[in-house]
Amino acid sequence: MSLTTEYRLIVPRATYLAARARNAMHRPIFIGAVSVGTFVTALVALVVVPQQAQRAAQAIAPKPGERPDTAALAYSVAVSQARVAATDSAVTAARIKSAMLSQAEVGTLDPVVTARRDSLNRRLTELDALLTRTETAPLAASYRALAESPELAGHAGVKTLLDSLTDIERERDASATSGGADPVFVALTARATEIGRALQAIGTSRRDTLREDIAVLAAPTRPSASELAQADTLRRIVARDSANASLAAATAELEAARRRVEELDRRAERARALANPLNAPPYAMLASAIVFGMVLGFGAALVQELRRPRIADAREAERIAGTRVISVIRPRPPSPERGRRMADRVAPPHIDPANDAHQLAWLFVAPPASSLLMLTVSGESSLIAAIIAANLGAVAADEARNVIIVDTDGQASPVSSALRLDARPGLHDIIQGRVGWPEATQHATIGRDRVIDVVPSGVGGSPPDAHQISDLLRRDAARMARHYDTVIIVASMQFTSSGLPGVLPKHDVIYCARLGFTRHSDLKNAIQAIRLAGGNPLGVVLWDDVEPAALAMEEIGAGARPPRTAEMEALVGGRAR
Asked: How many domains is the chain built from?
């Protein structure tokens, strides 16, 4: 049964388009280039404006001093309106005053009104005397006299307050017989004072009411000269007519100025239309050009992604390749443990065997209790394949395995670039017969005490072809298997598809691809080519990190070869001999 039977062959359209859009966003340089091109085109279009349209716009545009100042005219209208409103208010007030004076009667009040006013004065005098008594002698008897007065007797709350005051006096008299400073007596006295203050407030309110009633019944007085002047409406009517005339003149002048301004605005609008045929401000055109360029760039990237899609996630890679995704290599946050040790600080970048992704890949290719492991690591990027192979070798070294990594790519020397090792001598020199396996083997230290043997590719001359490397590994694979229980071959896709895995004792191959960069067709063709070349594709390792920077061939060739010290020989145990 195929490994893809658990997945649907038809992916939902929304899922597929979302994956394509994510991959299209991984091309910011392409999108930016299209945006900049559109921006430059729009800028040139704005600069190259027809000269005839510019001259016509200048001819009909208003002159600087031709526009009238409407602010001063509007202020004059506002002043006239305020003057008219003031004169109208003055006329209205004079008319009201005149009506009041005409209705006023000079003489004495009606006898009935006089008798009522005298009665109210007597009641006010009595109430005022009781209130004065409560202020000068704030005793319970004063408050009781005020509450029992005719002015407060009919009040709804006075009876309740008077009953409460009587109860408090009774309780206070009962507690006073005990002698001494009784707290209950003090509290009752304070409560009696509060009730008295409430009665006093009601009496004050009633006194104010009586005073208002007396003021209403006061006898009218003869109007004074100033009051008669305030009732003169003729002079104020003349002032109002003058203010109305001034307002009409100012309003007419403002309307004429506004019509002139509207005419000048139409001329200015026509001039702008001639100067700007697109009828849009320059900043709006630039902004729209940038947005259009970004949309166009993203659309072009999306169309290209739809025509030749790339791998978006592990599920899609499994569906396309027909094999499992072993692991997805993602960057880890910096670990403080690695910053404390000198061996970890000087370690090559991307070499992190403690990463769970590398551990997972190792558990898949080398399950527990496995003896000999011979594995070919390949991919579209030889450097990524070398980094994954070096991390697998470091994990194997942690499990006390004898590890050797063989680099077959003589054009890029990815293993030397990944581990920062000298590429000379190497596999090329072994094929040429200049050195043997022991002389070409270098020892790479990962961490403090993890050591792996590395056979670099070699530098100089034309690199060996696939047949020469296949013959060499076919001849010496059994010898390497006697000294090492983990043999990892790093090969380019060209060598892998030429039959290199088929000549090894074990044909297992791991293919390394990049999320968002490896195309569906490339991944599918690579897996098919591995199978046709006699290899057994164990699975795919996805690289979801920035592309590692490779060293130049001059830097690899000039690298320092690790010294063969006695400690190193004791540590590796002379495996390469």
From this structure: 2
**Closest by Cα among 490, 510, 503, 480 to 402:** 480
Is 455 part of a structural domain of the chain?
yes
Q: What is the mean pLDDT of residues 266-270?
A: 78
Domain end position, chosen among 185, 216, 247: 216
In three-state form (DSSP H/G/I as H, E/B as E, the rest C), the secondary structure along 490-548 is ECCHHHHHCCCHHHCCCCEEEEEEECCCCEHHHHHHHHHHHHHCCCEEEEEEEECCCCC
How many angstroms separate the CA atoms of 420 and 561, rounded?
10
Q: How far apart are CA 576 and CA 161, in angstroms?
A: 115
For residue 467, the domain's CATH number is 3.40.50.300
Q: What angle do CA 436, 442, 444 make, to 5 degrees?
A: 160
Give helix 156-176 / helix 183-216 axis angle, nearest 10°: 150
* Residue 184 belongs to some domain of the structure: yes
pLDDT tens digits along 336-367: 666 566 656 666 777 888 888 888 888 888 87
Say which amino acid occupies 389: A
CA–CA dist 127, 274 (Å, integer): 90
DSSP state of 294: H
Q: How many CA atoms lie within 13 Å of 54's alpha carbon, on the beta-carbon side? A: 6
Q: Which of 194, 216, 238 is the last residue of a domain?
A: 216
CA distances from 380 to 203, 362, 491 (A): 104, 21, 10
Q: CB-based burial of residue 554 (10 Å sphere; 0-12 exposed, 13-18 middle, 19+ buried)?
A: exposed
Domain span including residue 440? 353-563
Which run of H or of E encompasses 393? helix 382-398
391 Cβ neighbours under 8 A, 6+ residues apart: 350, 351, 352, 353, 355, 358, 361
Order of strands, edge to edge, in the sheet holding 325-329? Answer: 325-329, 536-543, 508-514, 373-379, 486-490, 403-407, 450-455, 442-446
Residue 573 in domain: no
Q: 87: closest CA among 243, 266, 319?
A: 243
Residue with tokens 């000068």: 136
Q: How far is CA 133 from the centre of its chain?
A: 75
Residue 307 within any structural domain of the chain: no
* Chain segment 15-65, per-residue pLDDT in tens: 888 888 888 887 888 888 877 877 777 667 666 655 566 666 667 677 777
The pTM of this model reads: 0.57
